[in-house]
Write a structure and sequence with these properties.
The protein is α/β, with parallel strands linked by helices. The protein contains 4 helices and 4 strands, in the order βαβαβαβα. It has one domain: NAD(P)-binding Rossmann-like Domain (Rossmann fold, 3-Layer(aba) Sandwich). It has a 4-stranded parallel β-sheet with strand order 3-2-1-4, sandwiched between helices.
Length: 120
């Protein structure tokens, strides 16, 4: 029996890197996985790399409404949530003295607001 058999996981930022590899591992261990990404093209592009019971969802990770819809969609599709792997994020390297508010807002909203309201 696989370690995650019967479990349901959400992996945000799952179209590449650590998020994609985590989603693959969860699927290989028997979990049902909801993978998210910011681009439908990228989500479609990972289908050939996935096996198992999964769902691809295109929310904006910083959107409170999209986060609530992600949770609802997962529960409707799979009945529960056991694991939240909130991997979506962005890194910007900007000098503090010239940091534009728009960049601060992007980083804060994606890295702080999104995860906070996803678990709320």
């Amino acid at each position: 029996m696989s370690k995650l058999n019967g479990k349901v996981a959400i992996v945000t930022g799952a179209t590449s890197g650590m998020g994609l590899e985590t989603a693959k591992l969860f699927l290989n261990e028997g979990a049902k996985v909801v993978l998210t990404g910011r681009s439908q093209e990228k989500l479609n592009g990972i289908k050939s790399q996935l096996t198992g019971d999964y769902l691809l969802v295109l929310p904006e990770a910083y959107s409170i409404t999209d986060s609530k819809n992600l949770i609802q969609t997962t529960v409707i599709q799979f009945g529960k949530i056991d694991v939240l792997f909130l991997n979506a994020g962005v890194f910007r390297l900007e000098p503090i003295g010239t940091l534009p508010k728009v960049i601060f807002d992007e980083v804060h909203n994606l890295n702080v607001q999104g995860p906070l309201f996803t678990v709320n």
